[in-house]
Amino acid sequence: MRELRNKIPAQVITMTPIWKPPQEPFVKVNFDAAFKATLHHSYSGFDIRNSRGSVMDNRTVLNKLVSDPFTTEAIACLQALNLSCEMGGGGIQDTTAKQWY
Predict the structure, then answer these.
(1) 14 in a structural domain
(2) What are the CA-CA distances from residue 60 to residues 15, 20, 22, 46, 67 (Å)?
(3) Could you read off the pLDDT of 46-68 as tens digits, one per residue?
(4) Is 0.85 surpassed by the pTM of this model?
(5) Is residue 11 in some structural domain?
């Protein structure tokens, strides 16, 4: 095993996350989801932050009868957007890791 480790170069990637608050009246919605294919369940998790960077809400939701990973992400996005609208969010700034446009 030692010989194998010596032959395979280790690549180290350093990432520095930079979070910037949105401008008024926007909120930022960060969401992610996990899908369990054998059970057809997914979990949605999201945070909603205001222009001061304060967490307005965050939740984790179990979703049943979900068919695939794409639907899982769409459900998480919809749940986060619905909550931010219910909270009176004046606008929404997309901060997902994925590009949805």
Answers:
(1) no
(2) 26, 23, 23, 7, 19
(3) 888 888 889 988 899 999 999 99
(4) no
(5) no
